[in-house]
Amino acid sequence: MASSSDYSDSAGVTREYYIAAEDTNWDFAPSGQNLVHCMDQPAPCAIPKPYNHVFPAVRYIEYTDGSFTKPKSQPQWLGILGPIIRAEVGDSIKVHFCNHTTLGSAYSMHPHGLRYTKDNEGALYYGVNSSTSPGSGAEVHSGQCFDYTWSADQTSGPSKGDPSSKVWWYHSHVESSSDINSGLLGPIIVTRQGMANPDGSPKDVDREFITAFFIFNKLSGDEAGLMHSINGYIFGNLKGLIAKNGEQVRWHVLGMGNENDLHTPHWHGKTVLIGSPPAQRGDVLELLPASMITADMKADNIGEWQYHCHVADHMDAGMVTTYQISP
What angle do CA 124, 127, 133 make, to 5 degrees? Predict the structure, then answer.
């Protein structure tokens, strides 16, 4: 059987990641406050009742090596999302994945956009005659590990005229909807061949942000359990979206969820360029579930600006934060 690395268009490097699925609790509003619409004056503004904002979760955690003893740090703004997996076109990606959860559920890692063999698809399903193997990486049970090998070929990277990098999702695909709702999702960024720094990030960008708009359903449809979040945070609790004046900023904006997850991310204070030439200039994107959009911004308007979904119910329910352009 051919390996997924056989599909690379040229000899790149192999980028290795050590990632585990782990049980945790996630706080969608660590401050307990609405940090956008009021702070301490005249008094703290508590998250509206009946919101609870701490729920059980399962997350992808990256480690420094195969001992899985030292977690790697990740940007504050990445929130509940798993680590950024990067590649330059021509590279192979090897993910050493372990299921460290304790409740007996099987999980996986399924990439969008990359090239892979059946064993490396990370999705549990069978063929039309119900006899086709789902692949050996389709479900990784508690206490087990699997090494996924994926390839960033030409079809994984930006098209001619696109920005120098593009974003894809990865997520667990055993019980796909419940796995994702638990918190098992993260970004892949593929950079055009010849345009990547050693770490895989694009050379022509000063700063990147990734924001995912997703309503986590934590109480089986009860309104109090619908967390209208950006990167797993509500009511401005997503912090760290800070750029410097004059920087070229790339926003990778993603959607996930169900029929209620129709989102319109909107930046105050700046516009962005979206898509291939002739690029569209706007300040609102249109996201459907599993959408992936890359947009570029010249950060040249100093201030703290609101960034939110423009669907009215979603704004009111907490899908709002701010970003900053500092002097």
Answer: 60
Give the class (CATH, top level) of 4-326: mainly beta
Beta bridge partners of 249: 207, 297
Q: Both tokens of residue 144? A: 């087990």
pLDDT of residue 6: 39
Range 73-78 contact pairs with CB under 8 angstroms and sequence separation of 24 or more: 75/240, 76/239, 76/240, 77/209, 77/210, 77/211, 77/231, 77/238, 77/239, 77/240, 77/241, 78/210, 78/231
Structure confidence by residue, pLDDT tens digits, 136-171: 999 999 999 999 999 999 999 999 889 999 999 999
H-helix or E-strand spanning residue 250: strand 248-255
Q: Domain residue spans in the chain?
A: 4-326
Whether the CB-CB separation of 210 and 294 falls below 8 Å is answered with no
| Other C-beta atoms lying within 10 Å of the C-beta of residue 236 | 24
pTM > 0.90: yes
Write the DSSP symbol of residue 50. Answer: T
* CA-to-CA dists, residue 69 to 39, 63, 100, 196, 214, angstroms: 38, 7, 12, 29, 30
